[in-house]
């Protein structure tokens, strides 16, 4: 196992730069999410430095679903990021973080009338997923006396090498409009009274560990861009979505760097727009690759049980990190308080949730585990806390943000009263 660059082992303890994770767990308790803002900044800069030399008019829209903490969004907003938002909640968070409405793309395959009215009110560009939605948006804009800028979400019918639940550009996927129907969709949009078609959008999937599918998607997108330009659409942006994977299995996985992504995609992009005679902005929507490796989940070993295997029972389960259970995902596990010791015991790392499937890591060698050990699950910054729940009525844990030598709460832990604070007593139930 190799650690990411911003982590190291000092005096046997896992550290994120100068911050000792064992001390942090002692101070704030466990479970505890810990995020390094400096790592997010570094990841963002990798994209900027890779893309801008090829094409200066590039915009990075952070996929807010990956980690919706306001402090994370603010850190990215300060760097000039916009956001891909997928709900009214994400839209509010992005605006609250200081992002400008015209740097946001409101995505989603099932937007409510309220979502559409909100997008119109805030002047946010909408990625339209169906003709039905197009006409609803046209009506909403007309009613508000405004115009709505849109892109269509293209389904490029691409099979990508990733978990089937997170491949979004398959012909059979629920997302987008089939690529062969896209010119007709723009034709329809040009005929709408209150719609300005200004962009084109796709997103082919997530945790993709090869750059080739992105180049193929780009090829489809620039070809369509040429066709719709000839029809009279004046494209201001082409959005290629997110999806670059990260090396959860270090050092075995090779995750393409933003530079490798740029080397594969940018020549296709430039050739295509030159052929189409246009010079739109290039937008991309990375989520995971910006935030995943910035964050670890610290959890305490409650007990160790030797049965037909050694169960290491921890205080975080799929209530806090659902990825292993939902996608069989791998997250590296380290014993943070003895990070210099070799793993000798084959362990199953099990959460406290009342389900057999609540296993966060299987068949891992850990240094002889004992109650009180602090384990660190790595690469939890994307789709970690964001997908957490209160299942089994467990309050969600706090989140800490690190920057330089500073550490502060970016979300307090929920309490037992937070569990009940939205509940109400129906009038027929007598209260004591
Ligand atoms: N743009 C759109 C329209 C998306 O739907 C997504 C992710 C992204 C961008 C960002 O993709 P990324 O760069 O993070 O791969 N919960 C799953 C991942 C679901 C991804 C959903 N869409 C997981 O934990 O692996």
How would you describe this structure in keywords?
432 residues; alpha/beta; nine-stranded mixed β-sheet; eight-stranded parallel beta barrel; 12 helices; 24% strand; globular; binds ligand LLP
Q: What would you say this structure looks like, in words?
A:
The protein is of the alpha/beta class and 432 residues long. The protein is built from 12 helices and 21 strands. The chain has helices at 21-28, 37-51, 70-78, 88-96, 113-122, 131-144, 182-190, 212-230, 258-276, 288-291, 323-327, 416-420, and strands at 7-10, 13-16, 19-20, 32-36, 58-63, 82-85, 104-106, 125-128, 148-155, 177-178, 195-201, 237-239, 281-284, 295-306, 310-314, 333-335, 345-350, 359-366, 374-377, 399-403, 406-411. Strands 4, 14, 15, 16, 17, 18, 19, 20 and 21 form a 9-stranded mixed β-sheet that branches. The longest helix is centred in the middle third of the chain and has 19 residues, at 212-230. The radius of gyration is 23 Å and the shape is globular. The protein starts with 6 loop residues before the first strand and ends in a 12-residue tail after the last helix. The structure holds ligand LLP. The site of ligand LLP has 23 residues, from helix 10 and helix 11. Residues 63, 65-66, 84, 107, 166, 168, 203, 206-207, 241-244, 285-289, 323, 327, 382-383 line the site of ligand LLP.
């Amino acid at each position: 196992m190799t650690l990411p660059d911003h982590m190291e082992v000092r005096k046997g303890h896992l550290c994120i730069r100068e911050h000792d994770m064992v001390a942090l767990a002692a101070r704030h308790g466990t479970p505890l999410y810990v995020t390094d803002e400096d790592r997010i900044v570094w990841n963002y800069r990798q994209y900027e430095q890779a893309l801008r030399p090829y094409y200066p008019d590039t915009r990075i829209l952070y996929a807010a679903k990956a980690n919706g903490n306001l402090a994370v969004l603010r850190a990215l907003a300060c760097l000039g990021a916009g956001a891909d938002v997928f709900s009214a909640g994400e839209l509010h968070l992005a605006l609250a973080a200081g992002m400008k409405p015209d740097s946001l793309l409101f995505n989603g395959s099932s937007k409510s009338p309220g979502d559409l009215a909100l997008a119109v009110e805030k002047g946010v560009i909408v990625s339209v997923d169906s003709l039905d939605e197009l006409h609803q948006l046209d009506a909403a804009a007309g009613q508000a006396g405004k115009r709505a800028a849109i892109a269509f979400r293209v389904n490029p019918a691409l099979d990508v090498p990733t978990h089937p639940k997170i491949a979004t550009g398959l012909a059979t996927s629920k997302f987008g409009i089939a690529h062969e129907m896209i010119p007709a969709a723009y034709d329809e949009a040009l005929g709408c009274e209150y719609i300005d078609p200004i962009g084109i959008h796709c997103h082919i999937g997530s945790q993709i560990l090869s750059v080739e599918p992105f180049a193929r998607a780009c090829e489809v997108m620039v070809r369509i861009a040429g066709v719709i330009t000839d029809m009279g659409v004046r494209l201001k942006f082409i959005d290629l979505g997110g999806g670059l994977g990260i090396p959860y299995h270090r050092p075995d996985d090779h995750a393409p760097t933003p530079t490798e992504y740029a080397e594969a995609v940018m020549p296709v992009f430039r050739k295509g727009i030159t052929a189409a005679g246009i010079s739109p902005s290039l937008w991309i929507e990375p989520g995971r690759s910006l935030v995943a490796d910035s964050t670890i989940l610290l959890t305490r070993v409650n007990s160790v049980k030797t049965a037909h295997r050694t169960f290491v029972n921890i205080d975080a389960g799929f209530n806090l990190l659902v990825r292993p259970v939902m996608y069989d995902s791998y997250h590296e596990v380290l014993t943070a308080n003895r990070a210099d010791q070799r793993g000798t015991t084959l362990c199953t790392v099990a959460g406290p949730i009342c389900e057999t499937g609540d296993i966060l890591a299987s068949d891992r060698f850990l240094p002889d585990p004992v109650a009180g050990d602090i384990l660190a699950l790595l690469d939890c910054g994307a789709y970690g806390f964001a997908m957490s729940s209160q299942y089994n009525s467990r309050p969600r844990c706090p989140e800490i943000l690190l920057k330089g030598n500073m550490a502060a709460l970016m979300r307090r832990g929920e309490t037992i009263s937070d569990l009940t604070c939205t509940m109400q007593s129906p009038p027929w139930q007598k209260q004591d």
